[in-house]
Amino acid sequence: MYISHIKLFNWKNFHECEVNLSERCFIIGANAAGKSNFLDALRFLRDITKQGGGLQSAVDSRGGVTKIRSLSARTRTDVGVEVILSDSEKHEPIWKYSLYFRNTGGGIKKNSALVKNEEVFDYRKGEYTLQRDEKEESEDQETLKFTHLEQATANTKFREVKDAFQALEYLNVIPQLVRESSSVMISTDKEDYYGRNFLQRMSILPERTRSKYLRLINEVLAVAVPQLEKLSFVKDEMGVPHIEATYKHWRARGSKQNEMLFSDGTLRLIGFLFAMLDGTGIILLEEPEINLHSEIVAQIPAFVSRIQRNKHRQVIITTHSYDILSNNGIGMKELVVLMNTKEGTLVKNGIDIDVVRDVMNAGLSAADATISLTRPENIENMNHITL
């Protein structure tokens, strides 16, 4: 399954947002337009369903409802997230999950999130599997602190929805944290947003699976980083996992290096490749172009497409890279464009924006159609500032 549609209400940058998502999707916008916040709405659903998670944990980790709620909120102060999950082969909707919640508490009473409305619609049966409303007699201040999504006894009829959210992955490899994780063992129980557990995740894979991934990664590295060869997985005498490769130079046999000496770009590339190969759930990638050579970046869309043919997993990428978006295989339906306005961020599918359609129908790329559209207004004045 993949998320084919999302609707946000009062979620951070977005007062109201409703767009379609494709199986390969590019989220484009200027700095501070809300690309990360858009992904965070999906991570929020993941946080509700993960082990040890739940609605209160997901909200608290974001600073509470008041920190989540859009500054553009008006009389309605609740926050809402709705998604449609569709079949990856037939591209037909299967489930719709909807959650609206509000803040309660203040003063001496602890702030909490309360469910205002929670619904699950089954498209195959053409009926609602769940319809909750805070005004129902069966609900009270305690029951409304929990979603049915997070409760095993309550989500039996829509367990597919919970499983899809729980399998969602987010990765934004921070090279410094990968290097840090090699000297400090970090628990694999905690969700890893920034690649700190990258090496630990590799260590728990079955040997056969890990060897397969490393073989494929080595094939890419042979082209993208030819001075590195024979990337392998090893553990030191303390049992700490490392990735190691031979660095070719003037010595005939080269020399061994591990992740502590790899460049930032090399670590991000390895992390990207591993993330694409490992797992089957929806994956969110935050600006994978950082630290990479433009020619490598240009190959990312095609590589994602190749992986999808085998894995059938949805890949949602945030970017403002001209090199990524210059790929001729990117279609208008794969673009989600974020544009800053005084009423929060406006979000539209590329195919619904006249200028994007006109430019791409003329044979130009998604980069030509969207980069200028999302540029900061009057950015050229930056060079006119008196120093």
Proportion of strand residues: 25-35%
Major beta-sheet overview: 6 strands, antiparallel
SS field, number of helical segments: 13
Total strands: the figure is: 15
Q: What is the average of the pLDDT values?
A: 89
Q: What is the H-and-E element order?
A: EEEHHHEEEEHEHHHEEEHEHHEHEEHH
Instruction: Calculate the terminal CA-CA distance, rounded to whole Å.
Output: 54 Å
Helix content: 25-40%
Spatial sequence of strands, sheet with the most strands: 2-1-4-5-6-7
Q: Outline the low-pLDDT stretches.
A: 185-189
Structural class based on helices, strands and sheet pairing: alpha/beta
Anisotropy-based shape = globular
Describe this structure in words.
This protein has helices at residues 35-49, 55-60, 65-68, 159-166, 175-181, 198-203, 207-224, 264-277, 294-297, 300-311, 322-325, 354-361, 366-374, and strands at residues 2-11, 14-20, 24-29, 79-86, 93-106, 109-122, 127-133, 169-171, 228-235, 241-247, 255-258, 283-286, 315-319, 335-341, 344-349. The chain is an alpha/beta fold and 387 residues long. The strands form three sheets. A six-stranded antiparallel sheet has the order 2-1-4-5-6-7. It has a six-stranded mixed sheet with strand order 8-12-13-3-14-15, with helices on both faces. It has a three-stranded antiparallel sheet with strand order 9-10-11. The chain is globular, with a radius of gyration of 22 Å. A hairpin with a 6-residue loop joins strand 4 and strand 5. The longest helix has 18 residues, at 207-224. The chain has 13 helices and 15 strands. Residues 185-189 have low confidence and may be disordered.
